[in-house]
Amino acid sequence: MKLWQKNFVLNKEIEFFTVGKDRYLDLFLAPHDVIGTLAHIIMLETIGVLNINELNSLIKELHIIYDTIRSGKFKIEYNVEDIHSQIELMLTKRLGKIGKKIHSGRSRNDQVLLDIKLFIRNKIQELVFIIQDLFNVLIQLSNRYKHILIPGYTHYQIAMPSSFGLWFASYAESLIDDIFFLKSAYNISNKNPLGSAAGFGSSFPLNRKLTTEILGFEDLNYNVVYAQMCRGKTERIVSQAISSIANTITKISQDICLYMSKNFDFFSLPENLTTGSSIMPHKKNPDVFELIRSRCNKIISLPNQISIITTNLPSGYHRDFQTIKEIFLPVFDEIKNLILIFTYLLKKLIINKNIISENKYKYLFSVEVVNSLVKDGLSFREAYKKVGLDIQKGYFPPITDIKHSHEGSIGNLCNKKLKYLMIKLIKNFKFEVVNNAINKLLIKSDLEGS
Questions:
Q1: Which of these, 246, 273, 248, lies nearest to 260 by C-alpha position?
Q2: C-alpha to C-alpha distance for 55 and 379, rounded to whole angstroms
Q3: pLDDT for residue 11
Q4: Main-chain dihedrals φ then ψ at residue 218, nearest 5 degrees
Q5: Which domains does the chain carry?
Q6: What contacts 27, CB < 8 A, 6 or more positions away?
């Protein structure tokens, strides 16, 4: 079944090529297509396109379809083009011509736009709380190991003293910026495109503000042409936010791979979390972190892929957008699974607590010696020169008693402030507004009595 089908038989090769992976990919969108259709038909009843009995019949059947989707038993039939066609076909089989009325005042263009935005909202909510769990683990590790010093590096050369507390908390704060970026992407996604139809509106007196309220959107995309231009743009912006998260994860994974080598020996993992070599019996490889690193790097490329697909497309709908679904819809599960396994591994890291005692790290404390001379009255340049010359002569007694006290330093990590910022930021998403709206749509008694 095709919603656009006329009195001709489509060439099978063309049909196979144009449908592509939609039957599989649209299963990601299936529950959201039902939710969007519920909002649309409630609105249609208020403008007289449906009567109350028709509305209640449709609501009842849509709830049955939704339950089938949630149970995992829903399928898009082989001869059906997409999720929109499948749901309309099911309603028409069960309710006759009433099922054919649900498409009044909308196009597959604004329908899939709506589905994608509802999908994005839902997936961002899942992702935010998984990131928060990772953030909390990083803060816990930072607090637990805040007194254990490690070398800090610039240019891969030892630079100044750092600490496990400082290192773990640095990535926790990075996640705060990632969530901030994700919040911006969420705001852009949280606007209602329904009613833009094929990109030029409708002659039906659609109540777009009503569907906006029913679906819990913050606002609507007002201009119907721009609403269509959001296709591709929204996915690119969201993927940029996700790529920022992936960038944080890949960077810390690279650190861990480096620090687990025997040359550094900052960390180790239990043997059952490492892999071995087919020829070298001593090997304990951090393969999971390496795979996390590579898969995050693949996600980082996603915004560029979407940009290339949409570059130079004029306004309006183009079938090019179908290709974006293939690379965009699965990315949420990919990043979610990467964060989950990464968080699990972080908890299992075994910390070397005696790193800094090795003689090769004594020059880490050169700045501490410079600063102590400045406190004794020398200018910084004089002190810097003196310590540099002492190092050249081979005479350098390090000062290892670190007393950094300013905000964000070894002795003042500000982890409580970071936790406050994360909690505040997550509250600003106002997920409860969306959840309450969707839950109300899915409560059968409320709708059937409307």
A1: 273
A2: 82
A3: 55
A4: -70, -35
A5: 12-104 (1.10.275.10), 108-357+414-440 (1.20.200.10)
A6: 74, 76, 83
Q: SS3 of 122, please? A: helix
- The pTM of this model reads 0.91
Q: pLDDT tens digit string along 75-111?
A: 998 888 889 999 999 999 999 999 999 999 999 999 9
Q: How many CA atoms lie within 13 A of 356 on its CB side?
A: 21
Does residue 282 surpass a pLDDT of 90?
A: no
Between β-strands 219-220 and 191-192, what pairing exists: parallel, antiparallel or unpaired? parallel
Nearest of 40, 47, 317 to residue 200 by alpha carbon? 317
pLDDT digits (tens, 9 = 90+) for 52-64: 999 999 999 999 9
The pLDDT > 90 percentage for the chain reads 78
Residue 446 has pLDDT above 70, yes or no: no
> CA end-to-end span of the chain, whole Å?
32
Cα separation, 264 vs 268, in Å, equals: 10
For residues 134 and 179, is the Cβ–Cβ distance under 8 A? no
If one counts every other C-beta atom within 10 angstroms of the C-beta of residue 342, the result is 20
Which residues have a Cβ under 8 Å from the Cβ of 41 and sit 6 or more positions away? 50, 55, 58, 59, 62, 102
